[in-house]
Amino acid sequence: MNPPLWSAAPFVLLLVTVALLEVLAAAWWSRPHHKALIISLFTIPAAAHLLADDGGPAALGHSLTEYLSFLSLLAALFVISGGIHLRGSLAGTPLANAGMLAAGAVLANLVGTTGAAMLLIRPFLRANAHRQRRAHLVLFFILIVANAGGLLTPIGDPPLYLGYLKGVPFDWTLRLWAPWLFVNGTLILLFNLIDQFIVNREERQDRGTGLMDQLIVHEPLRVEGRRNVVLLAAVVLLLVARLPAPLVAAALWAITFASWRLTPRAVHQANHFGFGPIVSVAIIFAGVFVTMTQPLLILNARAAHTGLTEPWQYFWATGGLSSVLDNAPTYLAFTAVAAGRSGISIDDPGYLSTLVGTSTGADLLSAISCGAVIMGSLTYLGNGPNLMVKEVAEHRGVHMPHFFAYAAAATVIMVPVLAAATVLFFPPGSPP
Q1: CB within 8 A of 30, min separation 6: which ones?
Q2: How far is 407 from 339, CA to CA, in rounded Å?
Q3: d(CA 121, CA 90)
Q4: CA pair distance 353, 169, nearest whole angstrom
Q5: What distances in angstroms separate CA 315 from CA 179, 193, 320, one per listed residue?
Q6: CA–CA separation, 70 vs 385, rounded Å?
Q7: Which of 153, 180, 174 is nearest to 164 (CA)?
Q8: 8 to each of 142, 159, 330, how far by Cα in Å?
Q9: Which of 138, 179, 347, 427 holds its CA 20 to 30 A away from the CA of 119?
Q10: DSSP characters over 208-269
Q11: 8 A C-beta contact, residue 319 and residue 418
């Protein structure tokens, strides 16, 4: 199957429409049924075109299966983490905020970026409730906790979990500790400097308010909803077990339902828990997964013409596409290209075990993994937790930047860090 380039139009138009509506009609766009209406305008034609082509129905079925796995995991982590409430408050000083981001970067590898983001975003915002300017807090939270933090384990981020299912050894991603440490460490240091500057300016502008005195006030933390900690451990064990995808999805939905039923209403109320964020993600990414099928088929069909030979090229190509497309299918697309370049057939469900068995393949997969996970932070669509964090923050009164403004701010922050990471870990001219 060699789809024409124009067949990618629904995907491109979907991305442009979502971005424009966030800017021009945010109030109208915030309603789930309006999202569903707009998404269907692009999803239905894309699905109809696939169903009419040879090989299209199978490709569409594969995308829908991946969407189900994606949504099952995100919904489980969202609901379970929403049933865990950290009572009390942390200090909201720049140093304490940086410490929480560092803790989130570690926690993301144990419970996934979605679990860590949903567990920590509420106490993070609560600790900074007295601040006038909070958008930068959420922006760095997305960059670190919801993305770059989850680079060390297959549980950390959906693309790495898909790699594990395709044959990557469970402990293989630990070899990425150096890029993980450099990127997250640099971002946390940069955040601390920016946050301290903003706090100092707020103090100067509002003398007499005692801002710093308010920020250092905190109460001892205690965990409510401990049953969900057990359910969170069950999700982790389920992901580690090599079970068929439909069985995993069914088990995740069962755990999600159990969490919702067993969590006391007081815990949900304390977390201001609602299904709005996960519903928005489900609607938008349903459109993304269906309309992205043709672009991925185009990429796979033209793999020989991609010009990708060196790790740094895979790093930037995977990351660039991950920023506008969910990073999980992007990861699979470029691992397929890397396997084809290495003469490895992707007909074998565990083809990545062969790829990582060679030094060349391991280097390429390292670059693909880092690009997919780290650069998924560059837009709200790059990774599922991004939109969830945005929705939660806005629900708590934070005025978040629209699609283009967020993308611009994230790019300005990340590009120098990514350029330095390229030189350190994927230098141009290094053997593929």
Answers
A1: none
A2: 31
A3: 12
A4: 7
A5: 12, 28, 8
A6: 11
A7: 153
A8: 28, 22, 15
A9: 179
A10: TS-HHHHHH--EEEEEE-THHHHHHHHHHHHHHS---HHHHHHHHHHHHHHHHHHS-HHHHH
A11: yes
Q: Residue 307 gets which letter from DSSP?
A: -
Angle 94-127/135-144 helices, nearest 10 degrees?
A: 100
> CA 426, CA 312: separation in Å to the nearest integer?
5
SS3 helix, strand, coil % of the chain, rounded to 5? 75, 5, 25
Please enumerate in sequence order all residues whose Cβ is within 8 A of that of 69, keeping only pairs 6 or more positions apart, or say none: 245, 248, 249
Residues in the chain with pLDDT values less than 70:
1-2, 88-91, 205-221, 300, 303-304, 346-349, 430-432
Instruction: Please enumerate in sequence order all residues whose Cβ is within 8 A of that of 229, keeping only pairs 6 or more positions apart, or say none.
Output: 84, 223
Q: What is the C-alpha separation between 231 and 289, in angstroms, rounded?
A: 28
pLDDT at 97: 92
State which amino acid sits at residue 332. L
Tell me the C-alpha distance between 226 and 209, whole Å. 37
Burial of residue 189, with CB atoms counted within 10 A of its CB: 0-12 exposed, 13-18 middle, 19 or more buried: exposed
Residue 102 CB neighbour total at 10 angstroms: 18
User: Which residues does 27 contact at the CB level (< 8 Å), separation at least 6?
Assistant: none
What are the C-alpha distances in Å from 422 to residues 74, 147, 369? Answer: 30, 18, 13
User: What is the total residue count of the chain?
Assistant: 432
Quick one: pLDDT at residue 63? Answer: 82
At how many degrees (to 10) do helices 56-82 and 32-52 cross? 150
User: What distance in Å separates the CA atoms of residue 364 and residue 352, rounded to the nearest whole number?
Assistant: 11
In angstroms, rounded to a whole number, what is the distance separating the alpha carbons of residues 63 and 69? 10
Pick from 335, 319, 328: nearest CA to 289:
328
Q: State whether residue 344 is helix, strand or coil.
A: coil
Q: Position 67: which residue type?
A: Y
User: What φ, ψ does residue 427 adopt, rounded to 5°?
Assistant: -65, 135
pTM of the prediction? 0.81
Q: Are 154 and 163 in contact (CB under 8 A)?
A: yes
Task: Tell me which residue has tokens 């199978």.
Answer: 58
